[in-house]
């Protein structure tokens, strides 16, 4: 008869997200995971696989939690540009917050640490980035159709510029002691939408 798990795999995965997010992949050892998750090494392997597999599952869960929120923000009926502005300002506020300084963004951290040499992580990063850029593009197309965005603007190029800005805000926010840096950059980028 198979033994039942004596821990909640969802809670353990959430704990793994928190640890990987704070420390990164390379700096997190299996011993760290055992201690932080409060479960044995064998249980981690049996439930999640290797450390790398656990990291990829953590990335997937992070995306499941975060990506739908952005889509919901940008697909509300009515004027689209206020929603785009709100998203950019939210990213800037998060990047400048104490938690943003401590952790940064899990996906952005992964892009810098693993994506250049880890195809599975790079795929997940790219998918997550598409889940940011695509709703931005859709919102900007809608804004242009509604007369909020001038006809001579390219919604795809603007979406890409805003996407790159959002990732940059996260990197600079994590490394800088000056929250005005990210706020000023966000506001200057938003001025391009006028």
UniProtKB/TrEMBL annotation:
Residues 29-48 bind DNA. It comes from the Bacteria. The keyword Ribosomal protein does not apply. Residues 6-66 form the HTH tetR-type domain. This is TetR/AcrR family transcriptional repressor of nem operon. Keywords: DNA-binding, Transcription, Transcription regulation. InterPro entries: Homeodomain-like_sf (IPR009057), HTH_TetR (IPR001647), Tet_transcr_reg_TetR-rel_C_sf (IPR036271), TetR_C (IPR011075). It comes from Streptomyces africanus. Signal peptide: none annotated. Pfam families: TetR_C_13, TetR_N.
